[in-house]
Amino acid sequence: MAKKVQHARAANDAGLSVVVIGAGISGILLGIKLRERGIHDFVILEKGATLGGTWRDNMYPGAACDVAAHSYVYSFAPNPAWKSRYAKAPDIWRYYNDCARRYGVLPHIRYGQEVVSADFRDDRWEVRTADGGVFVADVVIAACGRLHHPMMPEITGRDRFAGPSFHTSRWDRSLDLRGKRLGVIGTGSTATQIVAALAGEVGGLSLFQRTPQWVFPVADTPIPWWKRLAYRFLPGHASRYYYQLQRETETRGRAATGDRDARAARDRQCTDALATVRDPELRARLTPDYEVGCKRLVMSGTFYEAVQKPGVQVVTDAIDHITENGIVTRDGTLHEVDVLAYATGFDAHAYLRPMRITGEDGITLDQVWRDLPLAYRSIAIPHMPNLFLVNGPYSPGGSASVVGIVEAQVDYILKLLDRIEQADVAIVPREDAARAWLDDVREQARGSVWGTGGCQSWYLDKTGTPSIDPTPLSELVTQLATVNLADYRERPRAPVRLGAAA
Ligand code: NAP
């Protein structure tokens, strides 16, 4: 029996009621847009104690966003205050927290509410939380993020390590690393930021590399005061810069799908950056054997310099096991460390799981997703009426800031909400339309460098096909500008039955 029943819809309000899951960039954006649309009967259920999603969790040393700060914002809320081209994690967190406050989203957020299940009954969703709460609403929108379940590797002896050890998204910030020997497992964007920040600052740093990464050089140039003033006071200046950055990112991103000029320019920059590693033996160990851009590019102007600093070693012998005081590699060497950080990435394919979702006629998400995570346009799931996803399966990437992508998706969801409200229906994508869309996207993705470049990465789904839609943002915006109702089924909604969940 549920401990409490809460209706997202107020009894005297005829509008839609909505449960949003997650208070990260997408959930906050949904809050802003729902309010703008006149929908006030919504709650944002957040399992953490604060908002911010990825920018709350990833507070490791050096955490920053390698997408230009002025384009890593909501298009309608420029931030003239960024002090350099790339923003640090705490500043990004502050920006999104500030947006939530300024746009009136904070009162809608319920913290410590981990959603465990959602059931579609009597044309309404019943959303249950781990503490026994039940929220009833017309619509559920999952904004849970894609890189949010930390992956810990199966390495023998992991539990035996005597010192502090943690996944990078759970970094113990109370830890004083001065004089300590730090081991970092992994060489993705996270590990490289940590190494760039801590090389020379700790008692020793061992980077355990299984696969080398291509590194695209970027310079974190400061933004002078007069430019900041211009962004603040000259109308349209910051916004023009936002769209200029978007165009630049999109042009570079086209390298993934075969634009030869973009590809040649990108590859040359990466090989030139690698050539700055002075020791040929180290350079050889840092040289990938797959195509540039196959894995998500590491963007750093300081990583190669950092690994050449005294006290830093790049360990390329495979890890065999972990002991009380370090990592033993297959050649039998014990690499002693005092602190161990797992920069081993995230399960990018969990999406809504481990929540239990049951849609129309008792059909479960696991049934619908038996083969692949099927979501029409990454947003709407067959047999799950009025349930939508932001940044869902096969969402676009690689050619835009994720913020631009989720804005386009949220705008599309709002069009669906308009239809639900105006026609008083529940709306669900046709399975054949969803499959046709997915086949098309996967076909395009297969031809991208993520599929042909000869690497392993979190981009790949369980069949080895990239789970990223290579559609550039400008085309995505056009595609999502209209809702093709022929691709949906509509079912009339039954009248609201207050108290139905008890
Ligand atoms: P990641 O790119 O998935 O990298 C994980 C690393 O851990 C890889 O080097 C992987 O090696 C290694 N690894 C995994 N299991 C291992 C094992 N058992 N033994 C040894 N090594 C192991 O993870 P991430 O660096 O956390 O980045 C994930 C994503 O987050 C990025 O791709 C990016 O999209 C995002 N991110 C963005 C920013 C930003 O500035 N915007 C910053 C950080 C992260 P293999 O390569 O051999 O699998």
UniProtKB/TrEMBL annotation:
Q: Where is the signal peptide?
A: none
Database matches in InterPro entries: FAD-bind_Monooxygenase_sf, FAD/NAD-bd_sf
Q: Which key words tag this protein in UniProt?
A: Membrane, Transmembrane, Transmembrane helix
Q: Where are the transmembrane segments?
A: 14-32
Instruction: Please provide an example of a Pfam family that matches this protein in its UniProt record.
Output: Pyr_redox_3
| Name by which UniProt lists this protein | NAD(P)/FAD-dependent oxidoreductase
The record lists the organism as Alterirhizorhabdus solaris
